[in-house]
Amino acid sequence: MSINRVIISGNLTRDPELRSTASGLPVLGFGVAVNDRRKNQQTGEWEDYPNFIDCTMFGARAESLSRFLSKGTKVAIEGKLRWSQWEREGQKRSKIEVIVDELEFMSSRDGGGQSYGSQPSSGGYAPAPAAAAPMPDASSSVYDEDIPF
């Protein structure tokens, strides 16, 4: 048995980018910075070290949320890790990203968080779940043109 679940919270590192697959499936890509605290061995002080996590969300919820997310937005995300690899200019490349199932705003104008996903939460409004869209497999060319290097 394998378990592949991840929960992170942090701030968006850039404005999200909404694209569509060749079949019209909305794909939302964004980055989240998650700080890790470590003790600096030389100074003895605790310091924050950012981890930059690529996140991808599919379907109608991705399209809807793209209007509310922007750089700096604090969010909590639940999803699963997905590893993909490709070849560019003769060099093999790979990455691990979070495929987002649930997204909750950790701060808002009125001070309350809002959850957007397939499960309603007690802390806020959750819209009705969108029909499950088929996930493109990692070997498809969805990501080839989206890789920044």
From TrEMBL:
Plays an important role in DNA replication, recombination and repair. Binds to ssDNA and to an array of partner proteins to recruit them to their sites of action during DNA metabolism. PROSITE patterns: SSB (PS50935). It holds the Pfam family SSB. Keywords: DNA damage, DNA recombination, DNA repair, DNA replication, DNA-binding. This is Single-stranded DNA-binding protein. The keyword DNA-binding applies. A motif (Important for interaction with partner proteins) lies at residues 144-149. NCBIfam families: ssb. It comes from the Bacteria. SUPFAM superfamilies: Nucleic acid-binding proteins. Homotetramer. InterPro entries: NA-bd_OB-fold (IPR012340), Primosome_PriB/ssb (IPR000424), ssDNA-bd (IPR011344). One of its GO terms (molecular function) is DNA binding. Residues 116-141 have a biased composition (Low complexity). PANTHER family: SINGLE-STRANDED DNA-BINDING PROTEIN (PTHR10302:SF27). Residues 108-149 are annotated as: Disordered.
